[in-house]
Amino acid sequence: MKNNEILAVLKSLSNETRLNILCWLKEPGEMNVSLPAAIKEEFPGGVCVGSIQERSGLAQSVISSYLSSMQKIGLLESRRFGQWTYYRRNEEAIAEFLEQFAAGLQTKKD
């Protein structure tokens, strides 16, 4: 992960709502009361934009913009089912970010 990619993630997470969304998606079961079976099977951990919007209390257009930007930098994955779009955390990308960020902050010992 390059420095500009690390900076993009940090910039995204400097917004309280975007950070909250990433945290909320860590426990997707707390966000959705019931999911269609197809989503549970094909996209486990997916949460509907409407559920995220409802929890945030912000306009759906704002939340959709936040989710889209988080997807573009790799923090989230999305899948469309019919008229609904579902998002989930990209755990591999998050782990890579954390590893690279920590490595960049550590000092080398001789």
TrEMBL record:
Domain HTH arsR-type: 1-109
Keywords from the named record: DNA-binding, Transcription, Transcription regulation
Superkingdom in the source lineage: Bacteria
InterPro entries registered for this protein in UniProt: ArsR-like_HTH (IPR011991), HTH_ArsR_DNA-bd_dom (IPR001845), HTH_MetalResp_TranReg (IPR051081), WH-like_DNA-bd_sf (IPR036388), WH_DNA-bd_sf (IPR036390)
GO molecular function, one term: DNA binding
PANTHER family per the UniProt record, alphabetical: TRANSCRIPTIONAL REGULATOR, ARSR FAMILY (PTHR33154), TRANSCRIPTIONAL REPRESSOR SDPR (PTHR33154:SF33)
Protein name, entry field: ArsR family transcriptional regulator
Organism the protein comes from: Metabacillus lacus
Lineage: Bacteria, Bacillati, Bacillota, Bacilli, Bacillales
